[in-house]
Amino acid sequence: MCNNSQLMNVRLSCMTAATATPGSIAPAISLTEKALKHLNRMRSEKNEDLCLRIGVKQGGCSGMSYTMEFESRGSANPDDSVIEYEGFTIVCDPKSLLFMFGMELDYSDALIGGGFNFQNPNATKTCGCGKSFATSKEMQSTATACNN
């Protein structure tokens, strides 16, 4: 388990710039150019000042599932990590960030297998649908059938 100084380091690294420069810390969650472009398009269609909440929840065919939804910028909790990308904001709760630290979110418009793609370095097992993952053998025991 993390002590408070480790949690503070995670929080501080989340607040850095979207791209790492020499001598800087890489962002906790990064977006590819395609993902950023698609998310900005989706947000502009809603015509509101929104941010993307990204997280994980128990369930899915590998034990944990990714969650993503737009929400009002004012809805962020005080302990959420806030990551800014060229005017685009991602918020993530501390518990989810432990499972997603270092993850890259990509997007593909391919007819087969298109959509958002999660490249999570913490995942030890992923489902063929790409929307669920496990990080250890203990979590694999909660797996259920994949419906995707």
From TrEMBL:
* InterPro entries found in the cross-reference section: ATAP, ATAP_core_dom, FeS_cluster_insertion_CS, HesB-like_dom_sf, IscA_plant_cyanobact
Q: Name one GO cellular component term.
A: chloroplast stroma
List, in alphabetical order, the GO biological process terms annotated in this UniProt record: iron-sulfur cluster assembly
Which range is the signal sequence, renumbered to this chain? none
Q: According to the lineage, what is the superkingdom?
A: Eukaryota
Q: Which residues form the Core domain?
A: 29-131
One GO term in the molecular function aspect is: iron-sulfur cluster binding
Pfam hit, one: Fe-S_biosyn
- Protein family: Belongs to the HesB/IscA family. Ycf83 subfamily.
| Official protein name in the record | Core domain-containing protein
Q: Which organism is it from?
A: Triticum turgidum subsp. durum
Native organism taxonomy: Eukaryota, Viridiplantae, Streptophyta, Embryophyta, Tracheophyta
